[in-house]
Amino acid sequence: MKIGIAYALPQRQAWFDVNLPDGATIKDAIERSGIIGQFPEIDLEKNKVGIYGKVSKLDAVLNDGDRVEIYRPITCDPKTVPRKAKAGDAASEE
Predict the structure, then answer these.
(1) Number of H helices, E strands in the chain
(2) Which domain, by its residues, includes 41?
């Protein structure tokens, strides 16, 4: 089965295609892709992983065509980051 592996940094995005046997897991796909060799900051003990935006465990079994995503850790508290005002927000407050 064919699986895609995605990882994105602010300055670079990476996509790897791997062929795996039926019954392969997320961990199998990541190991087979060689992505950790290119991005040594990936730590599977810390980075969350998922399939199509849904967080999953490393032992989750994959289906043909799945996209495995490796997520970067959140570096700031979203509650403390000011939100940018959308155009028109000021007009709606009047």
Answers:
(1) 3, 5
(2) 2-70
Task: Report the domain count for the chain.
Answer: 1
Cα separation, 38 vs 71, in Å, equals: 15
CATH of the domain at 24: 3.10.20.30
Nearest alpha carbon to residue 9 among 45, 35, 30? 35
Phi and psi of 76, rounded to 5°? -145, 160
Residues 58 and 30: their CA atoms lie apart, in Å, by 9
pTM score of the predicted model: 0.75
Opening angle at CA 45, ends 42 and 48, nearest 5:
70
Q: What is the pLDDT of residues 14-56, one digit of tens each?
A: 999 999 999 999 999 999 999 999 999 999 999 999 999 999 9
Cα dist from 94 to 22, 67, 86, whole Å: 59, 45, 15
